[in-house]
Design a protein that fits this description.
The structure holds two protein chains of two kinds. Chain A is an alpha+beta fold. Helices cover 36% and strands 29% of the residues of chain A. Chain A has a single domain (3-148), classed as Chemotaxis protein chec. Chain A contains three helices and eight strands. In chain A, strands 1, 2, 3, 4, 5, 6, 7 and 8 form an eight-stranded antiparallel β-sheet that branches. In chain A, helix 1 crosses helix 3 (81-103) and helix 2 packs across helix 3. By secondary structure, chain B is an alpha/beta fold. Chain B has one domain (7-123): 3-Layer(aba) Sandwich (Rossmann fold), CATH 3.40.50. Helix content of chain B is 44%, strand content 22%. Chain B has five helices and five strands, in the order E-H-E-H-E-H-E-H-E-H. Chain B has a five-stranded parallel β-sheet with strand order 2-1-3-4-5, sandwiched between helices. In chain B, helix 2 (39-49) packs parallel to helix 3 (65-75). The relative contact order of chain B is 0.18. The chains are: A alpha+beta, B alpha/beta.
Chain lengths: 149, 124
């Protein structure tokens, strides 16, 4: 499977999450390479780490207000920090499940971890070429970061 | 209004998912009696609450869902278990069914898909 096809698995996973869970379609923007700079992080980030045929990480990073409105769409009334972490972790968990289904034994995928705050560092592998894919929903902007060597 | 005849225990380490399953259930014959954060809690709550139905996540701390399914079925062979997991590969689903689960629903799911899976579970 080419890198482009592998990236598409993760993009489709995020878009499917919005369709199923908040039942509104999100849009995928134009991907770009974050070369010579760290991809910008948002308030909450769910990360899965990948090893095996490729090594690296996949992260979904979203602003607090986007995740809060997603919870509202799910009829959730508790917008606590814990629930926002929980939601972004669930999105990463879904990406992990999709990857296991589509890539089988080629990749080993970690359980998701959650980072909070825009300054929280995400450690990239050496010589990383992170691909940043904008994910737009309503007026909110999240990013999917795929960094697989 | 018909009385609830099925007692549901929800098992998932995500609070958002536990609350969503409870809210989304629109089958009047199913009453949610409790929610557990891992397999170990689920076994304790099973003793106290005597659920007849369980929704079970797989990847959880302390005791995972596959082990908990096997222990629940050993303890109560009549219990019906719907595994709800992001692990969408066929091998995971087959393994859960072999351990005694009665159905498998992939995350993410819509409310309609959840209710359809619960309906099938009580009709099984």
């Amino acid at each position: 499977m080419s890198l482009a096809a592998e990236v598409a698995v993760f993009v489709d996973g995020v878009l499917h999450y919005f369709d199923s869970t908040v039942q509104q379609t999100a849009q995928c923007g134009t991907p770009h390479l974050a070369l010579g700079e760290r991809p910008e992080m948002s308030d909450y980030t769910g990360v899965i780490r990948v090893s095996g045929r490729r090594a690296g990480l996949v992260a979904f990073t979203a602003p607090k207000n986007m995740l809060s409105v997603m919870l509202m769409r799910m009829q959730e009334t508790d917008m606590s920090h814990e629930n926002l972490c929980d939601l972004v972790g669930e999105i990463a968990n879904t990406l992990s499940g999709n990857a296991r289904r589509d890539f089988g034994q080629q990749f080993q995928i970690s359980v998701p971890e959650v980072l909070t705050g825009r300054a929280d560092p995400l450690s990239f592998p050496p010589a990383a070429r992170p691909i940043v894919i904008p994910i737009d929903w309503r007026n909110y902007h999240a990013r999917l970061i795929v960094c697989l060597n | 209004m018909s009385a609830s005849v099925h007692r549901l225990l929800i098992v998932d380490d995500s609070n958002v998912i536990r609350r969503r399953i409870e809210r989304a259930n629109d089958l009047p014959e199913i009453e949610c009696v409790g929610a557990a954060r891992n397999g170990r809690e689920a076994l304790e709550m099973h003793r106290q609450l005597r659920p007849t139905l369980v929704t079970m996540d797989l990847t959880m701390p302390e005791m995972d869902g596959a082990e908990c399914v096997a222990l629940l079925v050993e303890r109560d062979p009549q219990i019906r278990i719907l595994v709800i997991s992001a692990l969408a590969d066929k091998l995971t689903a087959i393994d859960a069914l072999e351990k005694g689960a009665n159905g498998f629903l992939c995350k993410p799911f819509t409310d309609r898909q959840l209710n359809e899976a619960l309906r099938k579970l009580i009709q099984a």
